[in-house]
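Hi V.,

You were right to ask for the full record rather than a summary. Here it is.
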Amino acid sequence: MKRTARVTAMAGISAALAITAVAGAGAANAATSIDVNSGVSRVTGTLNFSGTTKFTATNVTLYDTSCDNRSAQFRFVTNNGAYGWRYVNQCNTSATWSSLSGTDGGTLWWLRVETKACNSGGCSSLGAHTYDNPNT
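Predicted structure:
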């Protein structure tokens, strides 16, 4: 009986180490909350970096938080370039994208989320936040 208990205990330790190793390896890919506010527009969502060249943002919501006749907009910018602006164009409304992703040709060191509101008369100040890629 003691020998069986020892084998079982050792198997339990191995399983615990395997779980810890997997959790530790996955920590670099942990999701990060996005919350960027310019004062008249706001972007929220979840950001995940996959390796050194890809990002995925899920449940990204852009809010037009002001009734000032300007369109709320946001975009992603990386150290290798920018992804096009996305818009919502109505007072106190929002739009949600379930998944947005990008792959860069080179190493993706960081991703910046920028948001502002614009019309033909000009743009608001830019709200921005930079998220570092934990895999680089």
